[in-house]
């Protein structure tokens, strides 16, 4: 509501997308709700990576309630690609996958130590006489 | 070497990119080494998501030895966006991040159990008489 009232009339300021593309910002502009004029970098970035026409097409193909998330994920991807033109956000995926592998290995080791410790403790409870023979874990 | 000899002469078959864009595939075509004619879907996918002109620009801005990885990461991202137009590969990032949070919580719990178990075992070694009072972990 606030947005459309602000954008009513010929003096309405164009959204960041229409400003960059130097075109009239229509009242039903598909970009306007997601690319406000005061965040020009956001559109510049997705435009550089995906191109305005592809973003337009993607948004048009989605339900309105999905568009906000789509824009957020495209902005995230585009920023990653601008920062790292070779790997983009696939670099982040590889690094997260590596962290998962490391954590899984560490967890398996810790679980094995715990099982060992429990067996050891159980043996000590069952055979108190073996107590002094099993101090090394 | 094999590629350039295959593509010599006017009868050379265009790469997947030039075929889709219906243009002549020059001998120094920037797409040809990464988008062979027998994998048309690969280019179609990145073209749909990033646009041929943006891919061209990205490749031109990179060193030749970086281009293969850049194409692979763009193909990965594009396939993810085609599969999931709302979240693209940012969906994978969220899911990996969630896995990391879960693994970290599980690891912290297991480590705490191990520390508890070690203290318990240490107490049993130091005070063997307390042995039967500490069966609950």
Question: Summarize this, please?
Answer:
In chain A, 64% of the residues lie in helices and 0% in strands.
What report would you give on this structure?
- Two copies of one chain form a homodimer.
- Chain A is built from six helices and no strands.
- The termini of chain A are far apart.
- Helix content of chain A is 64%, strand content 0%.
- With 137 residues, chain A is mainly α.
Structural class of chain A: mainly alpha
The proportion of residues in beta strands of chain A is under 5%
How many extended strands of chain A? Answer: 0
Rg estimate of chain A, integer Å = 28 Å
**Element-level helix/strand string of chain A:** HHHHHH
> Which regions of chain A have little confidence, pLDDT < 50, spanning 5+ residues?
1-11, 130-137
Largest interface, with Cβ-Cβ < 8 Å?
A-B, 48 and 49 residues
Give me the number of helical elements of chain A.
6
Question: Based on the structure, what is the oligomeric state of the protein chains?
Answer: homodimer
Q: Please give the alpha-carbon distance between the first and last residues of chain A.
A: 68 Å
Largest sheet of chain A: none
Shape, per Cα inertia axes of chain A: elongated
Mean pLDDT of chain A: 86
The helicity of chain A comes to 55-70%
């Amino acid at each position: 509501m606030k947005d459309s009232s602000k954008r009513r009339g010929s003096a309405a300021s164009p959204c960041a997308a229409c400003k960059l593309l130097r075109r009239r910002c229509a009242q039903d502009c598909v970009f306007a709700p997601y690319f406000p004029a005061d965040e020009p970098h956001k559109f510049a970035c997705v435009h550089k990576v995906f191109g305005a026409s592809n973003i337009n097409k993607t948004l048009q193909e989605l339900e309105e309630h999905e568009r906000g998330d789509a824009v957020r994920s495209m902005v995230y991807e585009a920023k990653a690609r601008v920062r790292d033109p070779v790997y983009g956000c696939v670099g982040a995926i590889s690094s997260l996958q590596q962290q998962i592998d490391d954590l899984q290995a560490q967890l398996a080791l810790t679980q094995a130590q715990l099982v060992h410790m429990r067996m050891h403790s159980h043996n000590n409870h069952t055979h108190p006489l073996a107590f002094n023979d099993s101090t090394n874990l």
